[in-house]
Amino acid sequence: MNEKDIAKLVQTGARAFNASEGRIKSVISLLQKLGYEGEALSDLLARQPSLIVMSEEKVMESFKQVEDIGLKKGSKLFAIGLRSILAMGTENLGRKQQFLSSLGFSEKQISELLRKRTLILELSEEKIKRNLDFLVKTAGLPLTDLVKYPGLFAYSLEKRMIPRYRVLEALKSMQVQMLKRLCFPIIVTLTEKRFLEEYINSNAESSSVLHDIYNGGKDGKLIIVKETSSESVSMKMIHESCGSSSAASI
């Protein structure tokens, strides 16, 4: 292992140092047989020190489940997927897949979700469902958009998505000429600074009202009802602009 990875292992994997040298050699030999060598092996042990104290059967089972998701061994995504599997326990993977199925995702969509954002396995079922309910029932996004933007499941509903959605609705109700850039999934992923610059501070005439809406002031408590035909056109344009985005892996 290189010095940087050894330092990381010391910080995060103290239990690994209780293992005998023979045990460590045995694990390294197994990981090499599973396709990990050199820098990739060094990085894997630093990120997943628990592998050192696992049984050979458990290690192989975990690797197989990550491969079954469709992630390539040796890739960074594989290491992330392995971390998620180890964090939740291999026995819980099937349950999480069944849960996603109960929310309406097809088997193919679930596979794509897990390939793009394996960390979704570490999110609680409650958080996944709350975010999905808001994104589908309130923001009006189809499940296909959630598959394109799986990172949406991880964001805070109260601190990020709801405030930004209020601003989005306000901009549409004000008929601000920005519809081609009002793609909600992408808006959610923007940094705080960029979001304020592009969607609040750039509208000089209404920036104070938009700030109030964003921060949950009296203007932010207004309920915007989607009833007019022009609103339907706006939502259509928004979804079309989202579909053309290349940021599908967020």
Automatic annotation (TrEMBL):
This is Uncharacterized protein. It comes from the Eukaryota. The keyword Lipid biosynthesis does not apply. Gene3D superfamilies: Transcription termination factor 3, mitochondrial. Belongs to the mTERF family. GO terms for biological process: DNA-templated transcription termination. GO terms for molecular function: nucleic acid binding. Keywords: Transcription, Transcription regulation, Transcription termination, Transit peptide. InterPro entries: MTERF, MTERF_sf. Pfam families: mTERF (PF02536).
